[in-house]
Amino acid sequence: MMPMELGKHLGDLIECAYHGLVFDRNGACAAAPTSRSVPGCSLTRYPLAETGPLLWIWMGDPDMADSVPLPRTDFVGIGVPGWRVDVAGYFHLKARYTLLVDNLFDLSHLSYIHASIVGDPKNNTLPLEEAAFVEDDGRTFFQRVRDDFSSQDDYHRFLDPRMGERMCAGFQTEMIAPGLIRAGDVHWCGPDRRTAPVGYSNFNHAFTPESEHSTHYWTFLSRNYDTSNDMTSARQVEQNNAVVAQDIDALEAIETALQQGNLPPEISMKQDLGGMRARLRLIQMINREAAAQA
Ligand SMILES: [Fe+2]
């Protein structure tokens, strides 16, 4: 069977790369140049919805496609006035998607895995008392806040060059859907958080399990400041992709170790609280779906 992904688009039609069979939007064979007649074959067709740069495909019973609402993407700035969205890239992760969830819910790894890029360990070793969880609207949200520090901190200077001498920042992770996680930075200009934040930088992660041990992984950025500056976007995309490459190396090493087996019992530390809560949510959703199918 020739994979159709190797075919080519002819407007709304798709042409198979092998014998040139052409299929229409309904999946039906519309032309067969190498045959005397058009065969009665068709492709499987899946409901698909588009939100900004995201495509949501429903692989289950087509009649059930509307039974679950699409995840809210306004939380990442898609379609919201005053926000800019930049697609950063696609990555093939040779690791299970749950390792990515763990990774994004424990940003204390920034000071280690990403030490060469993000730097300042103080950003990521904040006391847990300053961390907060919210579970609302089907979302799981986690934040650590760092108050009153110098914006000479290279990372924040990079994110938002408008920062004054003092600033505050929140490091946030939000699971909007199992395949959509926002890892973001909210920053305040000044020594406290009594005024409105001056900006949000979201590093958004969208992923689809490919197999038990591999994941299709896309990232896109969104921010609500300096939105007309293409240079800021280009620099942030470049930095994001360098950070993602480091995560991929780490997660693939963990995946290899998991598959080798003979592992000691898992050790959880305080900073794993976010990851544990995210795992719990995934387990609850998987159990709910299994119960519904039963
Ligand atoms: Fe990371």
Descriptive account of the structure:
- This is Rieske domain-containing protein.
- Keywords: 2Fe-2S, Iron, Iron-sulfur, Metal-binding, Oxidoreductase.
- A 7-stranded antiparallel sheet has the order 7-13-12-11-10-9-8, with helices on one face. A 4-stranded antiparallel sheet has the order 1-2-3-4, with no helix packed on it. A two-stranded antiparallel ribbon has the order 5-6.
- The relative contact order is 0.14.
- It has 294 residues and is α+β, with helices and mostly antiparallel strands.
- The chain has 4 helices and 13 strands.
- The protein folds into 2 domains: 1-45, no CATH class; 81-261 and 268-293, Naphthalene 1,2-dioxygenase Alpha Subunit, Chain A, domain 1 (Alpha-Beta Complex), CATH 3.90.380.10.
- A hairpin with a 5-residue loop joins β3 and β4 (29-31).
- Fe (ii) ion is lined by residues 103, 109, 113-114, 243, 247.
- Total beta strands: 13
> Whole-number radius of gyration?
22 Å
% residues in beta strands: 25-35%
**Which CATH-level-2 architecture of the largest domain?**
Alpha-Beta Complex
Shape assignment: globular
Mean pLDDT figure = 88
Identify every distinct bound molecule in the structure, by name, code or SMILES.
fe (ii) ion
Under CATH, the homologous superfamily of the largest domain reads Naphthalene 1,2-dioxygenase Alpha Subunit, Chain A, domain 1
The profile of the biggest β sheet is:
7 strands, antiparallel
Number of domains: 2
Q: Enumerate the strands of the largest sheet in spatial order, edge to edge or round the barrel.
A: 7-13-12-11-10-9-8
Alpha carbon gap, first and last residue:
33 Å
Could you state the order of secondary-structure elements as H and E?
EEEEEEEHEEHEEEEHH
What's the level 1 CATH class of the largest domain?
Answer: Alpha Beta
- The helix tally amounts to 4
Here the CATH topology of the largest domain equals Naphthalene 1,2-dioxygenase Alpha Subunit, Chain A, domain 1
